[in-house]
Amino acid sequence: MPRAATTSDVFNAIAEPRRRDILSYLAARERSVLEIASAIDLEQPSVSKHLRVLREVDLVRVRRDGRQMLYRVNGEAMQPLHDWASTFERMWRRQLSAIKAKAEARRTHADDPHD
Question: Which of 23, 52, 70, 88 has its CA 20 to 30 A from that of 106?
């Protein structure tokens, strides 16, 4: 089965690690292409290409400030990612709770002077 285009949805767009780096960097506030390029140690043309993909799936928004283009994360478009990851977060919490319960049971058993 052929892989979907990177611009078809947010999941394909974030499959590229550099795009995830860009999103993480933009999470704090809006930034210029040059700020992004400097922060993630990538050439400006590559950053621009990644930003184009992220804009096409609406994960980032852009606004012009004079001659500068400033990019920011579109939180609403991140919702499908959050919803999907939340499924696994619940699973991880259950597993961690089970591990904690087993560890506490073993500690209680080891501390029991009657054994």
Answer: 88
